[in-house]
Write a structure and sequence with these properties.
- This protein has about 150 residues and is α/β, with parallel strands linked by helices.
- The chain has one domain: Ribose 5-phosphate Isomerase B, Chain: A, CATH 3.40.1400.10.
- It has 6 helices and 5 strands.
- Helix 2 packs across helix 3.
- The protein is globular and about 50 Å long.
- Bound molecules: D-ribose (RB5).
- D-ribose binds next to helix 3.
Length: about 150
Amino acid sequence: MRIAIASDHGGFDQKAPLIAHLKGRGHSVSDFGPDTDESVDYPDYAGPVAHAVSVGDADRGVLICGTGIGMSITADKVPGVRAAPVQNVTFAHLFRQHNDGNVLCLSGRFVSLEDNLAIVDEFLATEFEGGRHTARVEKAMREDTPSAQRSGC
Ligand code: RB5
């Protein structure tokens, strides 16, 4: 799978081991930075990864900040992206199975590397279930359309 990855300073320490782990599992990984643990603004890194997924340059995105929340808020604004902060393997499974999530947002400060490796593995291994979830995801994605362009607004 082609994976785009980035962090801010809050997730920087986990980025390199996550990349090594993903490459070890045969994935193609594009590192969108940063290159040092200097303080940076998470939207500057979440945006490019989300756009790579949005335009099809990457199959999935992985973002790591202190909590995963700022990365998720930013990435989810990009059309076609379904991003969420995920702190355990069960949520990673359901994020794929029910929500067809395509950008995983991890916490580098409150979740251990070991747990995040298991979370990312589950995220990449789990298929979207489809069925009753398909229409729900489609309804959620309608919110990608700016209000002014929606009929009746
Ligand atoms: C940076 O201090 C921190 O705010 C950031 O990593 C992230 O947790 C934001 O959601």
